[in-house]
């Protein structure tokens, strides 16, 4: 719960990790899998709808997109509408200090430019994808409510949150 509570309290959620074999490292994926109970279809948290997130990845040289998409998908299902991505290749260097100066300065410049959009907090509204997931999940729980003899914890959460009525 401490990590989840820290995410709920954060103004900006930042995931920064290296890319191995073109995908998100298992540790990051395992963390997000642990939060699947908060996905839209289960028990979403209202606070997540106003969150912004950044995914920063680094690889030896291979593309970063697929590894970033894993995290973006999880964040979207958690209700985060504003997810931005920044990835870069080190072009063979394993350590930051081993990257040639020209490349390192270029990455630093791009990252500073990228980060300027996060200097001030700004309101976030649900994007069309999050709205669609929410609507489908709401319909699912409305229909489940009609057929469940014993209300599931997920459906009860939707009732308690005021999103559906008994």
From TrEMBL:
InterPro entries in the record: Flavodoxin_fold (IPR003680), Flavoprotein-like_sf (IPR029039), FMN-dep_NADH:Q_OxRdtase_AzoR1 (IPR050104)
Residue span, Flavodoxin-like fold domain = 6-105
**What domain of life does the UniProt record list for this protein's source?**
Bacteria
Family annotation (SUPFAM superfamilies): Flavoproteins
Tell me the Pfam families matching this sequence. Answer: Flavodoxin_2
The name this protein goes by in its record: Flavodoxin-like fold
């Amino acid at each position: 719960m401490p990590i989840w509570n820290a995410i709920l309290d954060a103004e900006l959620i930042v995931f920064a990790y290296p890319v191995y074999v073109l995908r998100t490292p298992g540790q990051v994926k395992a963390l997000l899998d642990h939060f699947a109970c908060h996905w839209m279809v289960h028990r979403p948290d209202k606070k997540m709808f106003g969150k912004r997130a950044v995914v920063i990845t680094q690889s030896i040289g291979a593309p970063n997109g697929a590894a970033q998409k894993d995290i973006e998908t999880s964040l979207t299902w958690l209700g985060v509408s504003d997810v931005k991505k920044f990835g870069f290749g080190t072009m063979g260097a394993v350590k930051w200090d081993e990257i040639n100066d020209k490349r390192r300065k270029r990455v630093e410049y791009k990252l500073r430019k990228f980060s300027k959009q996060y200097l001030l907090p700004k309101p976030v509204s649900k994007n069309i994808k999050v709205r669609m997931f929410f609507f489908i999940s709401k319909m699912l729980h409305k229909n489940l409510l009609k057929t469940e003899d014993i209300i599931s914890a997920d459906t009860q959460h939707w009732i308690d949150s005021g999103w559906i009525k008994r």
